[in-house]
Amino acid sequence: MNLTSILQPNCVIVPLKGKDKESVINELVNVLDQNGYLLNREIVLDAVLQREQTRSTGIGSGIAIPHGKCTGVRELVMAVGISPQGIDFDSIDGKDANIIVLLVSPQDRTGPHIQALARISRLMLDENFRSELQQAASAEKVYELIANRESE
């Protein structure tokens, strides 16, 4: 799976304005909604927040991947935000998340959802790539970094 097939340039936020987990998730859901990618913003927000309450999506190394499956989307959608100051996502390593990747998919399409989670996780294994993303000064630069990595 190529992430640029689900991530649109207008769904990248640098820097995120939110200072906590819930406000950052709200911000990323809002950018998807404002760009017409959601059927129902409230259903999407509820699904992601409920998933977050079940178990934190802070996977460590400065990364969080809040996600959910619900009826609020037609297809798999993605938004990315960079928080230079970091957000407490109750990560397994205790570190704040600087790179937040939101994924939302329809309930009946588990395969693409899992493929996207796996692809994001694989990309984020590269410490240099993570560092470049964290230091990106603009949404355009973040999208460019992801697109370049996906074309390698």
Account of the protein in words:
Strands 1, 2, 3, 4, 5 and 6 form a 6-stranded mixed sheet that branches. 42% of the residues lie in helices and 24% in strands. It has helices spanning 21-34, 41-54, 110-124, 127-135, 139-150, and strands at residues 7-13, 58-60, 63-64, 67-70, 77-87, 97-106. The relative contact order is 0.21. Helix 1 (21-34) runs antiparallel to helix 2 (41-54). It has a single domain, classed as Mannitol-specific EII, Chain A (3-Layer(aba) Sandwich), CATH 3.40.930.10.
Descriptors for this entry?
alpha/beta, 152 residues, Mannitol-specific EII, Chain A, globular, 5 helices
What's the name of the CATH homologous superfamily?
Mannitol-specific EII, Chain A
**Poorly predicted ranges:** none
Radius of gyration: 14 Å
Percentage of helical residues?
40-55%
**CATH topology annotation:** Mannitol-specific EII, Chain A
Q: Could you say which overall geometry the principal axes of the C-alpha atoms support? A: globular
* Number of structural units classed as domains: 1
* Binned strand content: 15-25%
CATH class: Alpha Beta
H/E topology pattern: EHHEEEEEHHH
What is the second-level CATH architecture? 3-Layer(aba) Sandwich
For the residues shown, what is the average pLDDT?
95
Main pleated-sheet profile: 6 strands, mixed
Extended strand count: 6
Supply the helix-strand structural class.
alpha/beta
Distance between the termini: 13 Å
Number of helices: 5
